[in-house]
């Protein structure tokens, strides 16, 4: 398995597990948050999906975002399926980008974000992206545990 194939598998499996987890959130809790400063469940989902799009744009610009307008900007929060459906075309575009990368690209392309003092290899940057989603999956699991709600089995 090549490095790019492994990355695609990691992104695919992480999203599959996230979606399974998100679909297990009882609808009545989608707007619940543990405190006034925390994300609600639905905000976490939107943050992950929109964040992937943002990261994709950063990668396309090799670290330079330029003028950015989020497709989610004026979109009202919906339910889990609406959020996943809206993000699907952006997800497909992102996965297609990964498919076109070579293993050499992962090492030679640099993502330079001067405003953050970051200079990362593309492979490193992509791994950080999928880690971001995994962290928020843990956050959702923690919220569900706090509420005493059954948690979907993501370790299948």
UniProtKB/TrEMBL annotation:
The segment(s) forming the DinB-like domain are 11-140
Signal sequence span per UniProt? none
Q: Which SUPFAM superfamilies match?
A: DinB/YfiT-like putative metalloenzymes
Q: Which InterPro entries match?
A: DinB-like (IPR024775), DinB/YfiT-like (IPR034660)
Regions crossing the membrane: none
Q: Which Pfam families match?
A: DinB_2
Please state what the protein is called. DinB-like domain-containing protein
Species this protein is from: Zhouia amylolytica AD3
């Amino acid at each position: 398995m090549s490095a790019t194939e492994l990355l695609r598998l990691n992104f695919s499996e992480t999203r599959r597990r996230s979606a399974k987890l998100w679909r297990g959130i009882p609808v009545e809790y989608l707007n619940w948050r543990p405190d006034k400063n925390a994300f609600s469940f639905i905000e976490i989902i939107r943050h992950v999906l929109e964040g992937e799009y943002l990261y994709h744009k950063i990668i396309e610009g090799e670290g330079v975002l330029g003028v950015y307008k989020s497709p989610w900007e004026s979109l009202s929060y919906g339910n889990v399926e609406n959020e996943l459906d809206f993000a699907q075309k952006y997800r497909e575009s992102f996965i297609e980008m990964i498919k076109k990368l070579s293993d050499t690209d992962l090492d030679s392309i640099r993502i330079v974000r001067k405003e953050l003092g970051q200079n990362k290899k593309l492979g490193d940057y992509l791994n950080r992206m999928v880690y971001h989603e995994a962290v928020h999956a843990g956050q959702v699991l923690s919220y569900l545990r706090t509420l005493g709600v059954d948690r979907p089995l993501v370790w299948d």
